[in-house]
Amino acid sequence: MTHDKPFSRDIILLSDVEYVVNEIVLKLKQEVQFHLKRFGAVIGISGGIDSSVCLALAVKALGPGNVLGIMLPEKDSSPDSERLALKLAAQYGVEVLKEDLTQILSGFKCYKRRDEAVRRIFPGFDSSSCKMKIGIRQGSLYSNLPPVFYLTIFDKEGNQQDHILPVKEYLQIVAASNFKQRSRMSMLYYHAELRHYVVIGTPNKHEYEQGFFVKFGDGGADLMPIINLYKSQVYQIASYLGVPDEIIERTPTTDTYSAEQTQEEFFYQMPFELMDIYWYGFENGYSPEEVAAVMGEDQEHIQALFRNFERKRKTTEYLRMTPISDF
Amino acid sequence: MHLETDTIKEKVKSYILQSAYAGEDLILDDSLIFQEGYFDSMGFVMLISFLDEEFGVQVLDDELIEENFESINAIIGFIIRKQN
Question: CA A174, CA A217: separation in Å to the nearest integer?
Fold first, then answer.
């Protein structure tokens, strides 16, 4: 494949941020008002960069009076999320409300089902005093083997224990935890329907294409304005739109498990700046040789990395599929 | 539990073919089952559980390498090494 631009480290950076913002804003306005014929938009705001940029774009497209920010904490959420979400709402002058999902999730037995699986691995685990997370180990990114998930718990003194997650426990922890994203989606639609608004979804390009979202959870929305943007581009737009520095500088987390966990640790296995560049090279058909030369990496590593990307895209196809209906 | 190589081979092969929904002509003993896309992350986790349940083989962190899992032959070799 021939390319207009030779591969480089800054190949993904937007050269005209204002133009891209205006294009997204125009489409957002057209879709909400003329296509979907709704009065405004609700967005779940977590104090993270993606939901903040989506809110800022929606305000620019629809006006602050037609955007509602909803904070959706539950007992495992970081207290920082609420403070930053309030700061964001104040910055853009939008109405904000809070729906604590802890009781709803308890009703689903989300915590109970999850903790039962954790205790089968660590019998002494007590969620009132211990914290937990699941993640993958570094080092498997250049391997042809897919990653294996580990369960990590921390006792009240902060002592850490890790264990490879057997399939039954892995599935139970993930299925139970996904109640969180699906409950958030249900609550967002309640408030959207109450006002005849749309729900704006916040996945970025990596989350969508690599399957880092919950089907009918955070993957359930009417519009996803940043779905074609690399994370570096989301940051460029955040700066341009005046998203508070504290949100821009915050490390992206999963906000799913009780122990602090970065997205890099849970899923991506490399900093987003690098992921952006490699994924661009992969999806635009740059050769592993050219990418390796620019990045100062081993060509075989890049080949394995690209195979890994292909596998991720293929194995997560199920998440992006709409219900099969051609019967 | 110490099984003969032929029994191990038969059980592993049958498990791999069944799990991958593939025929014997598609996955050969030295086919690279992960590299060729027959098994994904979930398949790998299930394979690890299968080794534990069927052969009592518990996989340690530093054993999660391609040499031990890349093909039917590699998996059989790994089980035999672990049993010895």
Answer: 13
Position A177 confidence tier, pLDDT thresholds 50, 70, 90: very high
Residue span of the structural domain in which B79 resides: 5-83
- Which pLDDT band, with edges at 50, 70 and 90, does A138 fall under? low
Domain boundary among A128, A156, A172: A172
Helices vs strands, H then E, count in chain A: 14, 7
Q: Would the pLDDT of A80 be above 70?
A: yes
In 3-state terms, chain B is what percent helix, strand and coil (to 5)?
60, 0, 40
Q: Which amino acid is at A275?
A: M
Distances in whole angstroms, Cα of residue A139 to Cα of each of A75, A165, A261, A270, A274: 32, 17, 18, 10, 15
**What's the rounded mean pLDDT across residues A291-313?**
91
Within a domain: residue A47? no
Number of domains in chain A: 2
Residues of B in contact with A137 (CB under 8 A): 61, 64
Q: Do A314 and B66 touch (CB under 8 A)?
A: no
Distance from CA of B44 to the nearest CA of A (A): 7
Average pLDDT across chain A, whole number: 92
Give, rounded to a whole angstrom, the gap between the first and last alpha carbons of chain B.
11
CB contact under 8 A, A145 and B65: yes
Nearest to A173 by CA among A234, A94, A256: A256
- Which one is predicted more confidently, B38 or A199? A199
* Within-domain flag for A287: yes
> Does residue A61 belong to any structural domain of this protein?
no
Q: Give the least confident one: A8-22, A99-113, B17-31.
A: B17-31
